[in-house]
Amino acid sequence: xxxxxxxxxxxxxxxxxSKYLSDHIGGTLEKATSAQSKNVDFELEPExxxxxxxxxxxxHDFGKYTSFFQNYLLKKGTVNGILKQHARIGGIAAxxxxxxxxxxLALISLFIIFRHxxxxxxxxxxxxxxxxxxxxxxxxxxxxxQKSLSQIENELEILDLNSHLNYPDEREIxxxxxxxxxxxANIRDYFLVNYVFSLLTEADKLDASDTFQYRLKPxxxxxxxxxxxxxxxxxxxxxxxxSNNEIRNFCRAEVVSNIERxxxxxxxxxxxxxxxxxxxxxxxxxxxxxxxxKLKTKTGIESRxxxxxxxxxVIEQSLSEYKSTxxxxxxxxxxxxxxxxxxxxxxxxxxxxxxxxxxxxMSVDTWQGDxxxxxxxxxxxxxxxxxxxxxxxxxxxxxxxxxxDEVQTLRLDQMPLIxxxxxxxxxxxxxxxxxMTATKPKIFELAQQEILNKEGDSVEPxxxxxxxxxxxxxxxxxxxxxxxxxxxxDDVGLEFLDRIFLKxxxxxxxxxxxxxxxxxxxxxxxxxxxxxxxxxxENPIHYLSTNIIPAHRTERIKLIKSExxxxxxxxxxSTQVVEAGVDLDFDIGFRDLGPIxxxxxxxxxxxxxxxxxxxxxxxxxxNFGDARKIYGQITGIQAENALRTKPExxxxxxxxxxxxxxxxxxxxxxxxxxxxxxxxxxTLRYDGEVTKENRPVSSFRIIEESxxxxxxxxxxxxxxxxxRDNYLKKITGKMLKEEFDENNKTEFQQRIITxxxxxxxxxxxxxxxxxxxxxxxNEVVNDFYNESTGFIRKQNxxxxxx
Length: 802
Prior knowledge:
CATH topology of the largest domain: Rossmann fold
Number of domains: 4
CATH architecture of the largest domain: 3-Layer(aba) Sandwich
């Protein structure tokens, strides 16, 4: 009998098998085996782990050998919706085969096969699947399979298969899981389950879609040197005598010199702490490439480089820099919300295999490349997660070199959990982690204090720039000047303009003003804009926040940069979106009270190019009264306390300021909610109800999802109107998804913003098929959207008719 794993329907509506089941199982096994990393360490015999992975893959689709599934697949006769299920009998067979060798691995294989088409669940809830219905399904499928047993044994390469087709004792299954979780579970099990689950689900999806499995290539360790020149260590010259470029050169030389250390491969956790504007992006890449080469020489393993950042504008900027540095033969993938699957402007040499849309999407989604540049959301919610969609690439952490940039943007209460997860992925999956920052948040120190001490583990990061404190003291670009005694009473915008801004600013100076909230930033923008017009000043004035569609943000940053270069002294009123990855260089700045690391990031946008005529350019700190409601009471209080210790803080003292701030705030913060997620990781509580005492893995989000916001498409012009029309054609089936994604998806998403619910009164869904996305049609766009400040934040918008 011929057994198929997949089918397709032709133009005449006839369904036929499209892939032999034996080919699919063999192809999935080949891909899973190929993806399995050397040097991972789950404290198991390598042969035992290999056997467990093999059996899990061989039996994941075992139920497809039944006539029940074949009839369903090929649309023949009467389809039994219950008996067509294909994962469970295979899970039981794999469990029986593995139980003899290792009971825990048998339970893991059972769990993974049962759940490989869905999310991972609380493992103590999982045994509820064993009931009378499952026993009935098993018995009927077993009788059906026995009709072709000899053929199946040959295809699966399993002898005496019938002896392993025994329904287990349900009470013993429940007891075994309970004993494991209550008495033996540890964090290693979490990484083992996710790793094997990932090997199976990724290989299954790659083979089902006929997507090419990428083979990693060596990358020239001299790539950065070839673009920027080979850096040199300091000779007799003193650090204080170095120019800006010479300091960058020295820092890169110091960092990459660590590669020559005899013990460098014994280290897995690195930090790179250096001031803003020092060239950390290329320095970290240079170190990673040289480390990749050394690992290949010493171990024979090619490492994938994973580079994760918090913001889309920073990702796109870094993607451009990487592609300008690395050979076109190397595959670099950008994996984030607005990533272009088709890469229209991508100069890289394409693979020999012509891939269709679904294959290209799968290739991006499973990180089939040498270098992956992705978002914190993708990276951390894969590392700490339960979703099939994300976990399928979990195995790529194996032997990877991970670069994490702008880590100061992570929430403080998440840091111990994130630090612990990074430590354990390095321990079990042989991952190297490079943590980059200008403000040195104590991620690993907090992980040690809150989690690792209790686990009997210890993390000792290796700092790549040993004399970073001395480097910080070299810079005198800016100073932080607290103006916290200035109280605002009634009209905050007008009081700020009259009592602070006009006394500190001069029309000859470009200026940055950063507020904590969108509403406050618009208020300040309106007051200053009115003043500029009334005084007939020539300073360009701009506004930037998430209230503006991404397409306009990108254009605005380019325009401001040009105006600064041409000495037009622009004024920018913004929110925290400028804190990282925005390469602008202002003369003076103001920032609302906030976390010290965020304040220092804003200072990095002032005198960024270290003009010696502008030493200690000021960033004034004011308190509009919004800090505590945005960042929490503890953060607001500690930031204010730190800033009240001196009348001003020159840049050379920033290192000490941030150090003392993190020490104080960490001792007063509560990490309990996220520490409970770590306990759920240990006990494999992947999903379940979120309570004060229980936080399942599924509750982890790198960015807390607001239940009070909605996505809105802004139809800003005729082109946007065409994009909306094409989107409606896609969701109603009048345009192929791949056609829309290739030609319209990126630009469509660049016109979407997220708005508080109370501001969306009067807006309607884009159509009846997509209630989650609202739309502002072009004919009423001026009632809802201001091109200068974005979405109009009034509650009296009138309802329109589509």
